[in-house]
Write a structure and sequence with these properties.
The chain has 619 residues and is of the alpha/beta class. It is built from 16 helices and 17 strands. A hairpin with a 2-residue loop joins β5 and β6. α5 runs parallel beside α8. The radius of gyration is 28 Å and the shape is globular. The N terminus is likely disordered.
């Protein structure tokens, strides 16, 4: 049946309505294209959302910033601390790759794809979930979440979360990026710092980056961040930028003028500098008075060193200080730019280190490694810190960097896992505060999202099943709305390359297989922050309960403990032998030639001696 014709007046009305609906639909689609994919939280609606700058230092110890007691000049970091809050109980993983995976994902590093350092991965861990060696596709990416939430996202510096363009920051939600894919590199040129890689690779905005002739890592990363921010200004979005310095990871390098400031500063030796740092921490109210600093593991008395050894170690620490000083200067350049451009007052700054200071020292390596460094780098005392040089400062200075805590990077001691952490949020968080409650690296992602007014994601995102972030936002505690970040019922576990720990309330259990006795220990960190008194025998029930909770942590996070007889150095050689052979070929050929020459010389020497003996023998 044919419907009756529509009267003219009704037809005009219908056509007008259709036109209006079409226009409304078109406008809504245009607005949707401009709107963030993740709606801001109710608290963020109608407010100007802040810019966020995250400064990540590499291998800086708890006491290395001036704001934490150091004699090293870091006025720009200290200015951020004065305007914000310093944490004295913030923890990371004990190695960089694991910490970075947790920073970017908000979940334990075994869930985020960085179960252990790739270079020393045990045979039984290879190919297992959580040991992919890159930021897992099953984990959220902070860059993606911030971008979808309406932020422009910029990354410069060390990435260390996957090799290749398909695993670079641009593939995980960063609008603009310049990233070093390896765990480290030379600071003056595109050059590897260890014989575990054939080349050092940087990516920039989807292409292999070519470094400028005057490249220096600290300066270049900040230059790029300023350029990214400046280029993005017409878009009108708030920005989230990460500057992940190579400083102060080995090789320690800095301009002569920065090293020169500290040329005589460290001639007093490590014990004196360590004591002075602790006293300043007490005066600042960061640490209680009367703590007995733990004995250094090597226990070397500065006075027992020869004068050349003292000069060498003083120079090594001067290069470390100069490199950190230089990084701080470039942080100041970034702040000055934001101030000149009218953005500083609406910018949140977060500053931290990825783990404790590194005890690595070149002279502890075996002969082939030493020969490789001697063939590829200048190692003389006058060259240290300059282009073409290599140096790291060793265990004694690392323990100074971690003052007052014991041990260092790669261990589950507080020196390996407790780091400086600073948050400055103008107009929202009062300045000059000190936060003493426990916080963990997985709390970073929820905190940044909270500051940005972006809801915390669940275990499903844009049609994919992903690991729900497990950390807690630190913002309620920083604003005085909550007393703690983690209630005493929370358990935080860690495992990585022979280092194990679990935190709950005031207590911590820890075990170190490589740099320790291999036994579990129990500490009350509120009463004993320096881990000087083992409570296993005194409080066996607490120890037993925490050990059981640690086993639950292992199971829930898919942790695969290294196989029996695992040795990190042996595994390093096994995992990397093809590259090592190529890197060492010239060195080994030279060594073989030298040994051959010595043998030939010895043979001819013996023949000459025998002939001479026969000629002079009495008839």
């Amino acid at each position: 049946m044919t419907p009756p014709p529509i009267p003219l007046n009704r037809w005009c009305t219908a056509r007008r309505l259709a036109t209006l609906l079409t226009l409304a639909f078109t406008a809504s689609m245009a607005l949707a294209a401009q709107a963030p994919a993740v709606a801001p939280t109710a608290a963020a609606k109608g407010k100007q959302r802040p810019n966020i700058v995250f400064i990540l230092l590499d291998d800086a110890g708890f006491s290395d910033f001036g704001a934490y007691g150091s004699e090293i000049s870091t006025p720009n970091i200290d200015r951020i601390a004065t305007s914000g809050v310093r944490f004295t109980n913030f923890h990371t993983a004990s190695t960089c790759e694991s910490s970075r995976a947790m920073l970017h994902s908000g979940v334990d590093h075994h869930r985020a794809g960085a179960g252990t350092l790739t270079a020393v991965m045990a045979d039984n861990q290879k190919g297992r979930p959580g040991y992919e060696g890159f930021l897992s596709d099953s984990a959220h990416s902070l860059g993606r979440l911030m971008k979808d939430g309406g932020y422009a996202t910029y990354f410069t510096g060390k990435w260390n979360l996957g090799l290749g363009l398909e695993r670079s920051p641009g593939a995980r939600g960063w609008d603009r990026s310049l990233s070093l894919e390896q765990t480290g590199a030379d600071n003056y040129e595109a050059r590897v710092y260890a014989p575990l890689n054939l080349e050092a690779v940087w990516w920039e905005d989807g292409q292999r980056a070519q470094l400028p002739k005057d490249f220096f890592s600290n300066r270049h990363y900040v230059d790029k961040m300023i350029r990214f921010i400046e280029d993005g200004k017409p878009g009108g979005k708030p920005f989230f930028g990460i500057v992940a310095f190579q400083a102060v990871h080995s090789p320690l390098q800095a301009p002569d003028v920065d090293i020169g400031k500290y040329r005589a500063r460290y001639e007093a030796g490590w014990a004196v500098i360590r004591s002075q740092r602790y006293q300043r921490q007490v005066e600042m109210g960061l640490m209680p008075a009367g703590l007995k600093l733990p004995k250094a593991m090597l226990g070397r008395d500065w006075a027992s060193l020869s004068e050349p050894e003292q000069r060498l170690y003083a120079k090594k620490m001067a290069v470390f200080a100069g490199m950190l000083d230089n990084a701080d200067q470039h942080i100041g350049r970034l702040r000055d730019y934001l101030q000149r451009s009218g953005q500083l007052d609406n910018t949140v700054f977060i500053v931290m280190s990825d783990n404790g200071a590194d005890a690595y020292e070149l002279n502890k390596l075996n002969l082939p490694f030493r020969l490789w460094y001697q063939a590829n780098f200048a190692l003389g005392i006058d060259d240290l810190g300059r282009p073409g040089s290599y140096v790291h400062y060793g265990q004694d200075w690392a323990e100074v960097s971690n003052t007052p805590f014991p041990l260092f990077k790669g261990t589950s001691g507080e020196g390996g896992m407790r780091v400086p952490f600073i948050v400055s949020f103008p107009g929202r968080i009062p300045g000059g505060g000190v936060a003493r409650e426990f916080a963990y690296v997985t709390d970073f992602l929820p905190t940044v999202l909270d500051i940005a007014g972006i809801p915390l994601p669940g275990d499903e995102y844009q049609g994919k099943r992903l690991h729900r972030p497990t950390g807690r936002s630190m913002l309620p505690m920083l604003e005085g709305k909550e007393a703690v970040v983690h209630p005493p019922t929370d358990t935080i576990g860690f495992e990585g390359t022979g280092a194990e720990a679990l935190y709950k309330g005031d207590y911590k259990i820890a075990r170190n297989a490589t740099f320790g006795d291999g036994h579990w220990h129990l500490y009350n960190l509120r009463l004993d922050p320096l881990e000087s008194t083992d409570l296993v025998a005194r409080q066996p029930e607490i120890f037993k309960a925490l050990r059981a909770e640690y086993d639950v942590y292992l199971k829930n996070n898919g942790v695969v403990l290294p196989h029996e007889g695992y040795d990190p150095l042996r595994q390093l050689l096994k995992n990397n032998w093809p590259v090592l052979v190529r890197q060492m070929a010239a060195v080994l050929a030279g060594a073989v030639a030298l040994v051959g020459a010595l043998l030939i010389g010895a043979i001819y020497g013996i023949r000459f001696w025998r002939r001479r003996t026969r000629l002079h023998r009495p008839a």
